[in-house]
Specification:
By secondary structure, the protein is α+β, with helices and mostly antiparallel strands. 19% of the residues lie in helices and 28% in strands. A hairpin with a 6-residue loop joins strand 6 and strand 7. Helix 1 crosses helix 2 and helix 3 packs parallel to helix 4.
């Protein structure tokens, strides 16, 4: 018998003091309130540094948070995965860099890419009330290099297609829905993937209601209904937003 789980992809915006009232520490109470209200089963966070991870660990006590930073010393931004400790068992976990040498921390493709290394975190999770484990893969593709994004998407697809288990992929892909990077995922005939958030629009706003663009996604090889996906409108409270991205949610079925 299948069971539906709630998955959220959420770019938290790295802690930058120049953001003023939208510095992460000031946004944290709203983020915690949001999580406590929505109660996602699994979250794919992007742009989380060690300081942010410590605060989230102290605040989101119902979750296990896993993932390391993308730099050579494994510090810096991470593609953090959070899962409910009462609902899931962790069977395996990997971090890999989007590069020709994915096991070398801090590695990059070396061409058509920003100075930022890009990391992907992947957890093999089993819902305690289900029988089939699945890979939860969380990533953040490059913000400058189009070819780097294509190669990153290709590398992620190679990873999930090499596994026996189904997958859920979350992330900030820095790419619009009609881009080659996204088409490479959803038009893969050898490994069918559905964009569970295909009905969602305008995930990025940069702390401004005037800016709108979709770059955040949930993909899956599991059964899902994209009509159930949710875009959370991020209305500021006293000028404070949740992030410069809107969280997106999808519901997938696990056997």
């Amino acid at each position: 018998m299948s069971e539906k789980i709630k998955v959220i992809s959420f770019n938290l915006r790295i802690a930058v003091k120049g953001d003023g009232v939208n510095y992460f520490d000031y946004r944290l109470p709203r983020i915690v309130e949001f999580m406590n209200s929505e109660k996602p089963d699994i979250i794919g966070f992007q742009e989380v540094n060690a300081h942010m991870k410590d605060l989230l660990n102290a605040s989101l006590t119902d979750y296990v948070l896993i993932g390391c930073g993308r730099e050579k010393d494994r510090n810096g931004e991470s593609a953090l995965i959070g899962y409910r400790k009462d609902r899931f068992e962790l069977l395996s976990f990997e971090n890999f860099w989007l590069s020709a040498t994915p096991t070398i921390p801090g590695s990059r493709y070396g061409f058509d890419q920003s100075c930022c290394p890009r990391i992907t975190s992947a957890a093999l999770l089993k819902l305690r009330t289900a029988s089939t484990p699945f890979w939860f893969v969380n990533t953040h593709l490059d913000h400058e290099g189009k070819l780097a994004r294509v190669l990153g998407a290709m590398q992620i697809m190679q990873f999930v297609s090499s596994k026996a288990e189904p997958c859920v992929i979350t992330g900030d892909f820095n790419a619009l829905p009609d881009s080659p990077e996204i088409k490479l995922i959803v038009e893969n005939k050898d490994y069918p993937i559905v964009e569970a958030t295909s009905k969602v629009e305008s995930t990025f706003h940069a702390f401004s209601p005037k800016l709108r663009g979709k770059i955040d996604y949930v993909f899956t090889s599991l059964k899902c209904d994209p009509d159930e996906s949710v875009l959370y409108e991020d209305e500021p409270v006293d000028g404070v937003y949740l992030s410069d991205h809107r969280p997106v949610a999808a519901f997938v079925e696990v056997e």
